[in-house]
Amino acid sequence: MRSHSLSVALAALLVPGVASANVECDVEAAVQEWAAAWGARDAAPLSGPVAFELLVTDTGDAFRVELPRDGAGRAVPAGGDEPATRFKAERSVYCDLASGRMNILTTMGQAHASDPTPMEADIGVAWTRGGRVRSELMPAWFNFFATDTPDSVRFGFGHGREVHGGHAVPLYYGEGLRTAWYGLEPGMHVNRDAEDQANAFDSIFIVLDGPVHARFDGQQRMLEKGESVYVPAGMRHEFWVEQGRGEFIVVMSGEGA
């Protein structure tokens, strides 16, 4: 299996790592619930059935789920054929997923390949070719760990990790689509590094709370609550606040998003 880095796929997205309040949760029960909630709608991005393994690194527990194209999944003893994905994380991370404090994309997001993440994912070799991680596995990961119908994600301060200089929660990833919530506090600066400031696809930023200071291709602007701004591919952009808090939603679309 190959360790999968989301440094490219999740680079543009990404709430401070507050201590989990759910470290005593029943991970086995959570795995069974995730499997039972799986259905044909969740499997729609997949070309066939998949199996996931979930390793709890600080307890040694291991679980396996088999997820068909139609009907509910099932939890089975770990082992057998190579899974499509082997997840590896401490107990508290699985508990954060079960409680909804974090979603799976938040636990795996990186700004750079060397950044540590709460959740690691090893990908079965057969799934590493032909863009299948992005087109099939990432939507399946999201659907597996989000059990609502339709799937929902909690966002806001305290629901994830700090990446790229701000708090953020990825909301959904699909082919040609990325969405995320960002939160800013004084001293934070999203996309401070020049290498992070431009994307190869279009973006729309929707300000939920402000004001938010921004710079687009070197030109500074003030963005207010209730304002949106369209940033075309290639335009450099960065954001910060000088007092209070700022929040915005970003929607990125197009080839490569």
From TrEMBL:
Alphabetized SUPFAM superfamilies for the sequence: RmlC-like cupins
Gene3D superfamilies documented for this protein: Jelly Rolls
Secretion signal, residue range per the UniProt entry: 1-21
Keyword Signal recorded: yes
Keyword Disulfide bond: no
Keyword tags: Signal
Domain Cupin type-2: 203-246
InterPro entries noted in UniProt: Cupin_2 (IPR013096), RmlC-like_jellyroll (IPR014710), RmlC_Cupin_sf (IPR011051)
Top-level lineage group: Bacteria
This protein's name: Cupin type-2 domain-containing protein
Organism: Luteimonas terricola
